[in-house]
Backbone:
């Protein structure tokens, strides 16, 4: 595979996906890279040597996983609106991989510790209402 549209900037109007160039075979490598990227980003947040803050923990987690989110949103849209046997096979293959990845992040003790530290101090952090709710 010469190029994968998921690994490029989209210069289409309004940043829309280049649907004419995206093929089913582009999804698995994009999912794999997206999972690896998000795992690496989360590990860096969990291992941060800096004191836990809303910005370096919650906001950083919100920014992580951009590629995986982009791939997942587009895949779900295409699979539900224009599904075919190739996309359905990818969905069956990646559903357990994505579930395992999400579970690993959710149960990471170091990430939980950082989030828990913020939660315990939430009333003293001066958070905006939306930050407090998050």
Residues:
């Amino acid at each position: 595979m010469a190029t994968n549209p998921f690994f490029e900037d989209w210069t289409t109007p309004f940043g829309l996906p280049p649907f004419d160039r995206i093929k089913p075979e582009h999804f698995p490598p994009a999912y794999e890279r997206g999972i690896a990227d998000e795992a690496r980003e989360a590990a860096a947040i969990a291992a941060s040597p800096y004191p836990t803050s809303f910005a370096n923990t919650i906001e950083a987690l919100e920014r992580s996983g951009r590629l995986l989110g982009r791939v997942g949103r587009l895949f779900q849209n295409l699979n539900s609106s224009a599904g075919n046997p190739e996309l359905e096979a990818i969905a069956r293959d990646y559903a357990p991989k994505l579930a395992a990845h999400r579970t690993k992040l959710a149960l990471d003790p170091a990430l939980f510790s950082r989030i828990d530290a913020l939660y315990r101090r939430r009333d003293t952090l001066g958070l905006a209402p939306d930050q407090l709710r998050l």
In short: The mean pLDDT is 95.
